[in-house]
Amino acid sequence: MQFTEEFLEKLTEANRIVFFTGAGISAESGVSTFRGKEGIWNKIKPEELASFDAFLKNPNMVWEWYQYRRKIVNEAAPNPGHLAIAEFEKYFKDVCVVTQNVDNLHARAGSSYIYELHGNIERNYCINCKTFYNKDELQFSEKTPICKICSGLIRPDVVWFGELLPEQIFIDAESKAIHSDICFVVGTSALVYPAANIPILAKRSGSYLVEVNIESTELSRFADHSFIGKSGEILPKILNEVKNLRTV
Ligand code: APR
Fold first, then answer.
1. Measured from the CA of 100, which atom of ligand 1 is nearest?
2. Of 33, 187, 216, 222, which is least packed with CB atoms within 10 Å of its CB?
C-alpha cells in the first residue's frame, strides 16, 4: 500500500487525531452494516423497529430485535481495525473516537476517549422516569422489561430515527473535530445527519481528511486522501507507518 509524501508528513506533524467511525469498521467482526448489499435496512424497515413510535406500538417486537442485536454484538470481538485505533493513543498527544456505532467494540478494543453519537446498545433506560439500567441490572428476556421505580417501559439507550443526538456528546465531538489535525473517516456511508456533519466540520476547520472505506462515498469528494479497502487491513498498515515515523 503506497503512502503519499503529504500523508506521511501529516502523520509526522499531527498531535490531535479524530477517528469518525461507522458500521463498516465492525463488519469484519461479524456485525452487519445498515446499507449496502447485505445491509440491515434492506431486510427491515427502520421505521418498524428503530423509532419511538414503533416501540410504543409494539415494545416486545422492538425489544426482541435489540436482544438479537445484543447477542451478535456480545459474540463479536474487536477486529484489527478497532485495535489499531486504540493503539494510536501511544503515538499521538490526543486521540479520540467519534462513533455512530452502538456496539461497544471501540471500548472493548481499549480506546479511552469515545463519543457515542447514537448511544450504546448495552445501556437501557426507563422511558418515563429516565432511570438508567445497565445490562447486569436487568432480567433480560424477550419481553420488554419494566422499571422497578415507576413501572415504565425500559428501552435501549440508542438514538432512533427522528430522535435528537445526546447534546453534550455532540457538542464535545464537534469541538474535537474542529481542533483535530487529522480526521480519519472509517466505514461510514456518511449519509446520516447530523453525525455526518462531524468530518465536514473537521475539514472546514483545516483538518486533513482521510477516508477508509471499501468503496467511495458521499464524503470522498471532501477527502484529502481515500484508502479503498477493508479497515481491518488498512488501519494496521497505517499504524505500522506511524510506528516507523514516531516514537512512543
Ligand atoms: N471496511 C471499511 N468500510 C466498510 C467495510 C469494511 N470492512 N465494510 C463496509 N464498509 C463501508 C460501506 O461501504 C459503507 O460505506 O461501511 C459503510 C457502512 O455504511 P452504513 O451501513 O450506512 O452505516 P453507517 O454509515 O454507520 O450508518 C449511519 O445510520 O442506520 C443508522 O444509526 C444507524 O449509526 C447508523 C447510521
1. 34
2. 216
Q: How far is the CA of 46 from the centre of ligand 1 (A)?
A: 15
Q: Is residue 188 within 8 Å of residue 20, measured between CB atoms?
A: yes
pLDDT one-digit tens code per residue, 209-226: 999 999 999 999 999 999
Q: Write the residue with the smallest CA distance to atom 1 of ligand 1.
A: 230
78 CB-contact burial (10 Å; exposed 0-12 / middle 13-18 / buried 19+): buried
Question: 151 by DSSP, 3-state: which?
Answer: coil
Q: What are residue 208's DSSP bridge partners? A: 182
The residue contributing the CA closest to ligand 1 atom 7 is: 230
Q: How far is the CA of 155 from the centre of ligand 1 (A)?
A: 24
CA-CA distance, 56 to 162, in Å (whole number)?
A: 14
Q: Which residue has the cell 435501549?
A: 156
pTM of the model: 0.96
The dihedral over CA atoms of 105, 107, 108, 111, expressed in degrees to the nearest 10, equals 110
State pLDDT tens for residues 38-85: 787 787 887 789 999 999 999 999 999 999 999 999 999 999 999 999
111-120 residues labelled b (16+ CB within 10 A) or e (exposed): beebbbbbbb
Pocket test for ligand 1, best of 82, 214, 230 (most atoms within 8 A of CB): 214
Q: Which residues are catalytic?
A: 118
